[in-house]
Design brief:
ATP-binding, transport, 10 helices, Oligopeptide/dipeptide ABC transporter ATP-binding protein, 8-stranded mixed beta sheet, 12 strands, alpha/beta, globular, 4-stranded antiparallel beta sheet
């Protein structure tokens, strides 16, 4: 039996007011909201790498920002190590922020161009008042080594302009690792990098998990990298979770039609097994005017009358859940050795 989750997310919602038209329109019409994250519930266990996938605008990045405390939820609860974040006092929240770190997508925007690598990686230690100068230096060296920048002394004096895109992203990783976090959110960390550089960074994440028991939420629209790096996968559509469970099971036997469509767009190197993806109509894929019932039904080729009702998340097997009345792989067995 597994230990208690590191994170317990229940009915988590984040919505933003949308202003339409002029002042008179806003006075005499009902306020509309963009539901970036809409009543999602899931757990994350210590030491797992969890993938979070879905098309652009589905709420992936907002969910990651909610977990690290960059934005406040509109409703719902986030429990960390058994405690509700809303109950944390100032000192407890500071400790939480030290324990939880995020790596952003764009290494060209997330680094201060005037800071050397050493200054960038030192900054979190200064903010949290950690260590003597000697202890900070040792932490910086270790973080650079852990992120794959070796030898560290060659990188410490360099500015971002002197680094490649892959090296910049590794500096971002080192900046997050220098605080020895328990949990790391990686938001599309390799989407701007070429394949060879991306593979090196993904392998570095896997090494960190094995060596440090690091827990990672890996956000991506790329299901190929999700499969390569993650243990569990969460699929989001229009702000909600439509499928989650063991990564191998979901990739090999997708239960939700949306997951099936996402997978149909993944290139297959075997010319005899090429799959033609089905486009998802973006005009009906927005989080302001979410349809009643199953939110995917207007894009779903399997939709029936019952889909006008809202499906609950239900178990497909012991390692996979989906919110669908007619799961496409309900008759498929679980993958071996999950």
């Amino acid at each position: 039996m597994r230990e208690d989750p590191l994170f317990e997310i229940r009915d988590l919602t984040k919505k933003y007011a949308v202003r339409e038209g002029g002042i008179l329109s806003s006075l005499f019409s009902d306020q509309k909201y963009l539901r970036a994250v809409d009543q999602v519930s899931f757990d994350i266990h210590q030491g797992d790498i969890v993938g979070l996938a879905g098309q652009s605008g589905c709420g992936k990045s907002t969910l990651g920002e909610l977990l690290v405390g960059l934005v406040e939820p509109s409703s719902g609860t986030i429990r960390y190590k058994g405690r509700d974040l809303s109950e944390f006092d100032k000192e407890e929240m500071k400790e939480f922020r030290r324990d939880i770190q995020i790596i952003f997508q764009d290494p060209y925007e997330s680094l201060n161009p005037r800071y050397t690598v050493g200054q960038t990686v030192t900054e979190p230690l200064k903010i949290h008042n950690i260590g003597s100068p000697e202890e900070r230096e040792a932490r910086i060296v270790r973080a650079l080594e852990d992120s794959g920048l070796t030898p560290p002394e060659n990188y410490i004096p360099k500015l971002p302009s002197e680094l490649s895109g892959g090296e910049r992203q590794r500096v971002s990783i080192a900046r997050a690792l220098v605080l020895d976090p328990s949990f790391l959110v990686a938001d599309e960390p390799v989407s701007m990098l070429d394949v060879s550089v991306s593979t090196g960074i993904l392998n570095q994440f896997k090494k960190l998990k094995d060596r440090k028991d690091l827990t990672l939420l890996y956000i991506s629209h790329d299901l190929a990298t999700i499969r390569y790096i993650t243990d569990e996968t969460i699929i989001m559509y229009l702000g909600d979770i439509v499928e989650m469970g063991n990564t191998g099971q979901i990739i090999d036997y997708p239960a939700h039609p949306y997951t099936e469509q996402l997978l149909s767009a993944v290139p297959n190197p075997d010319p005899d097994e090429q799959r033609l993806g089905t486009d998802i109509d973006s005009s009906i894929s927005n989080t302001v005017d979410i349809p009643s019932g199953c939110r995917f039904r207007d894009n779903c080729k399997y939709a029936k009358e019952k889909c006008k009702q809202e499906p609950d998340m239900e178990s497909i097997n012991s390692v996979q859940e989906a919110a669908c009345f007619y799961p496409v792989s309900s008759s498929k067995s679980e993958v071996e050795n999950v």
